[in-house]
Design brief:
- By secondary structure, the chain is α+β, with helices and mostly antiparallel strands.
- It has two domains: 2-69, VC0802-like (2-Layer Sandwich), CATH 3.30.2130; 71-140, VC0802-like (2-Layer Sandwich), CATH 3.30.2130.10.
- It has helices at residues 14-26, 52-61, 82-90, 120-129, 137-140, and strands spanning 2-11, 31-38, 42-49, 66-77, 97-104, 110-117, 133-135.
- Strands 1, 2, 3, 4, 5, 6 and 7 form a seven-stranded antiparallel beta sheet that branches.
- A hairpin with a 5-residue loop joins β5 and β6.
- The longest helix has 13 residues, at 14-26.
- The chain is globular and about 45 Å long.
- This is ACT domain-containing protein.
- It comes from Desulfoprunum benzoelyticum.
- Residues 1-136 form the ACT domain.
């Protein structure tokens, strides 16, 4: 139930984000989710892409060190307090999100939260026990290996 996410630091300049997204697009790689955080002179770019191995290899060839982290995608109701309710399930377990981002889901009335937890495996176990729908690579149309 974990997804592979590409993380890289890019110069905080408009052309750098263009270079990354254009190169991925030219290689036929679709963006599934994206999060860019301003950290001063550099931005932290997190990507879920259709072909993880190819995207990482391409970015490394562009002299943009990219590393892979694992994240968890949870589908929640697109309604007030849904995120708080999900976080309530975790708050007393010692598991907390170290970063997260969201997008409006493809299922009617649903949103998708992408989390990197302090302990992804424990978070998955807790969320599954509570009946939270977790999305896998297939749900995103993501090829995670070089196959």
């Amino acid at each position: 139930m974990k997804l592979k996410q590409i993380v890289l630091s890019i110069e905080n300049a408009p052309e750098r984000l263009y270079e990354v997204t254009n190169a991925l697009g030219e290689a036929g790689i679709n963006l599934r989710a994206l999060n860019l955080v301003d950290t001063g002179e550099f931005g932290q770019l997190r990507l879920l892409v259709s072909d993880v191995a190819t995207a990482r290899r391409l970015l490394m060839e562009m002299q943009m060190p990219a590393f892979i982290t694992e994240v968890v995608a949870a589908e929640i109701p697109d309604a007030p307090k849904s995120l708080a309710d999900l976080l309530r399930l975790l708050k007393d377990t010692g598991v907390y999100p170290s970063n997260m981002y969201a997008f409006h889901g493809t299922s009617p009335g649903k949103a998708v939260m992408i989390f990197r937890f302090s302990d992804n495996d424990k978070a998955i176990e807790i969320l599954q026990q509570q009946g939270v729908t977790l999305l896998d690579a297939k749900a995103f149309g993501i090829l995670e290996s070089g196959k």
